[in-house]
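To illustrate the input format used throughout this study, we show a single complete record. The first block contains the structure-token representation of the backbone; no residue identities are included at this stage. The design step must infer an amino acid for every position from geometry alone.
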């Protein structure tokens, strides 16, 4: 959706970001706080020195991506779908990430010593701060993502608007 974010450098940074998010979700999964990444909301703080990564993430975060026709993205290239989480929020500070996700967070490698072979990883490969928590939204019974928009369609009260549209269009029965 944004010019310049398809470059090899940007794709590599986004893959590293995905790895960091997965590490954080694994911590939550190990503690039985979530069972699947789609149950998670992710919070990120990307320092100013990582402007390219920040711009790419900001570009790929749409408004309400569970709309039938998302306004801010093309509906496919979206950060929450890349990370397979229900929501991605960019935070202004690393402290904000920790406040939002006190139990499950990974701090930037500049501020936390690297883990030893006997400890749980607490740093990220990208130097950003990542946090996750269980979503408080409702689960769509079709795509299994969590969204505040689940139930917006009266005919398909257990689905998000995106899935409700697909069910109606294709004649599926839930």
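Output of the design step:
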């Amino acid at each position: 959706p944004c010019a310049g974010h398809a470059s090899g450098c940007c794709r590599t940074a986004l893959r590293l970001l995905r790895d960091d998010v997965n590490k954080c979700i694994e911590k939550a999964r190990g503690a039985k706080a979530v069972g699947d990444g789609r149950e998670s909301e992710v919070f990120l703080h990307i320092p100013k020195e990582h402007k390219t990564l920040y711009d790419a993430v900001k570009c790929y975060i749409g408004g309400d991506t569970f709309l039938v026709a998302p306004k801010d993205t093309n509906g496919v290239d979206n950060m929450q779908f890349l990370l397979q989480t229900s929501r991605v929020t960019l935070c202004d500070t690393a402290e904000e990430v920790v406040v939002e996700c006190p139990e499950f967070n990974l701090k930037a490698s500049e501020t936390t010593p690297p883990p030893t072979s006997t400890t749980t990883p607490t740093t990220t490969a990208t130097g950003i701060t990542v946090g996750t928590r269980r979503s408080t939204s409702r689960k769509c019974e079709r795509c299994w993502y969590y969204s505040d928009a689940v139930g917006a369609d009266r005919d398909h009260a257990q689905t998000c608007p995106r899935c409700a549209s697909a069910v109606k269009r294709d004649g599926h029965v839930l």
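Structural context for interpreting the output: The beta strands are 40-45, 87-90, 105-106, 129-134, 138-139, 146-147. Residues 8-30 form the longest helix (23 residues).
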